[in-house]
Amino acid sequence: MADKVNIGVIGAGWWASLSHIPALIANPHVDIVAVNRPDREGLDRVAAEFALSHAYTDAAEMLAKEDLAGVVIASPHILHAEHARLALEKGLHVLIEKPMATRAEDAQQLVALAGKKGVQIIMPYGWNYKPILDTAHRLVAEGWVGEVRHVVAQMASALADLFGGEPMVETKDHLFRPPVSTWADPEKSGGYGWGQLTHGLGALFRIVDLEPTGVFARTGLSPAGVDYYDAAVVEFANGATMALSGAATVPKSRGYQIDIRIFGTEGMLLFDIERARVEAIRHDGQTHVEQLPADAGDYEQVAPITRFVDICRGVPTVNPADGTIGMRATLVLDAMYRSARSGRMEEVLQ
């Protein structure tokens, strides 16, 4: 087990500079933080802000020159797979910002490559690192709902500006602001599904072990032409079904919503971050109501980096947002967007 490791960051932009880089610098088990972004001006701003001397405009050069144990992938959505593949080919653990990839085949190939190289993929789905989600996962694993037959899952966010092609108001004082080209360009996998609903799917696939097989979907578009609203029916390999919903237009005065209801042969599970609720109710009369603090559903930014560093050090640890979870989220979204375009049920690519 290594006491200290070196970590690289590909895509040192808005979220990396706001969250990942500060968390890496603050981690006592991280020695060197190497950063990459393609524009020299932006790279110099990051290097100056965090006093980083290992800075590169070329990601491949960084991977070739630095002795890294893992790499954070925080580049634009459509580049996640390309950059993750570069790191995985070097035998490095990767933390891939969501979405894992924007094509089903890319996500599947990344999982296969990580397995071949004997390294881990970890997704920074913040809620997956919270005790509230651990509890939901445990209750399902213990059999409280039996075999899953139906799921109702919805996520909503206060991001009408971001997905509408406008500056995200909360980011006015940040080092960088989220670019329209990443979040609100329909030609570059912008939209609520790739940008946010992937979080809800990441939580779902941590709670239940289900393999998606088909999706029928409709979307409602923002002024920028990307999805503000997502409505989908999802089929799973065991015959279960899901009603899936996403919405970007929560008023700014309210927080995130993830509400997942799981119905099975033995009972049901209710999971809700907005009201901090996890309850299991069985047909035989047994009930479990988890006692949670009011902030139990708040988003967790630092824990994914902490867990990633532990993985890179060789510390035995649970990965609550592994490559399979990220891949399944991508498989659903890939089929959802294809269905919205085609107007018919689309098979999940296997």
TrEMBL record:
This is Gfo/Idh/MocA family oxidoreductase. InterPro entries: Gfo/Idh/MocA-like_OxRdtase_N, Gfo/Idh/MocA_Oxidoreductases, GFO_IDH_MocA-like_dom, NAD(P)-bd_dom_sf. It comes from the Bacteria. Residues 5-123 form the Gfo/Idh/MocA-like oxidoreductase N-terminal domain. Residues 135-269 form the GFO/IDH/MocA-like oxidoreductase domain. One of its GO terms (molecular function) is nucleotide binding. It holds the Pfam family GFO_IDH_MocA_C3.
